[in-house]
């Protein structure tokens, strides 16, 4: 091992550990031997540097995560082209802006926002494949400034040496701090790399405004039940990447159950399908003929070898229920879903839509929303939207707030449903609220009025004597 080395302006080799390499000669022969040893070590060091650069800037095209047997079904079944992609017709349909930009290789930096499993990562990979760009993925949660600088340097080197473009995919870009986002700005603007950001939040609120202004923002929608059923059928039929080598008989109600409870999330739907297929034992054949042969094949292939099954698997509704367990409600208690859902709840009560209000209340409770927050909003609604039309509404709202604090969850949902139904059925009046807003506007924009003499407090003089 070398004790010290430098490649700047020549090569300096430490004398430590070199004595055994020196030949026992004198004069010119000794100097020649020293130069030969130094040259050899310089060559070794230079090859090490070249290897390191190759590791930093290499393409590693042979890495195919999607084709690995150990990868989850959702990863193996990622669409490889826009034609395979399911959903998002509003931005990828024929003639749409995003599709035209991808096909013409004129795509600017973009930010995809949408719920989990809607295809943000998949679409980014398809774009890289269609535009023959190097695809680099980093996480907004785990990456740091040093990694960002390394990726940018690699992109600049790749563009200058081979002319190949780089697509930097930043997952959960809303977790980037300002320093990380600011590092990207010059290179995004100069075209050194193309940025594709992905977030489940509203990028206009959570991503640096300077970065948003240099990118096109596209909203991806959750997949419909029919689209998820199509993905299930495709996975069951695909023998190369899916479960096509299994003999699966899937009931229609089981397929529908998986699609419904996945709540638009393709990843959750396909992974639930895979775990159901791999953990359900095949149906026992009526005849025992060939049983030994099948068992021998199973031993060779492995019990859980992807893509192999010796018998037919009946995927029933019960299997579907066990595979997916609980519906994945897209909800975050501090983000867009939190405010959007409470807004839908209040507007449903305002429109006297009792069924709608109950639905949004149930969604919030199911997702674990704080019941105290819901009760506070109902108190505000009782005074703001019902007000003078039914003064009892405010009294009931305050009583409900006290009740939910007293009983707690899960029973708190009962008084919350009670007061929600009352608010929907009550007459509405915003008269007091509107008058307060009008008076507040006058205070802000008009000259402040003095208190008239007949309204002043006459019991205490303003300037008492003595």
Shape: extended
Instruction: Identify low-pLDDT runs.
Output: 1-25, 47-67, 285-290, 293-309
Number of helices: 20
Taking the sheet with the most strands, its summary is: 5 strands, parallel
Q: What amount of the residues lies in strands?
A: 5-15%
Number of strands: 7
CATH topology of the largest domain: Rossmann fold
- CATH class category name of the largest domain: Alpha Beta
**DSSP helix fraction:** 40-55%
CATH superfamily of the largest domain: P-loop containing nucleotide triphosphate hydrolases
Mean pLDDT: 80
Q: Which structural category fits the helices and strands? A: alpha/beta
Q: In whole angstroms, how far apart are the ends?
A: 98 Å
Spatially, the strands of the biggest sheet line up as 2-3-4-1-5
Radius of gyration: 34 Å
CATH architecture of the largest domain: 3-Layer(aba) Sandwich
Number of domains: 4
Order of helical and strand elements: HHHHEHEHEHEHHEHEHHHEHHHHHHH
Note down, in words, how this protein is organized:
There is one protein chain. By secondary structure, the protein is an alpha/beta fold. The protein has four domains: 57 residues; 133 residues, 3-Layer(aba) Sandwich (Rossmann fold), CATH 3.40.50.300; 100 residues, Orthogonal Bundle (Helicase, Ruva Protein, domain 3); 90 residues, Zinc Finger, Delta Prime, domain 3 (Up-down Bundle). It contains 20 helices and seven strands. Strands 2-3-4-1-5 form a five-stranded parallel beta sheet. A two-stranded parallel ribbon has the order 6-7. Strand 2, helix 6 and strand 3 form a beta-alpha-beta unit. The chain is extended and about 115 Å long.
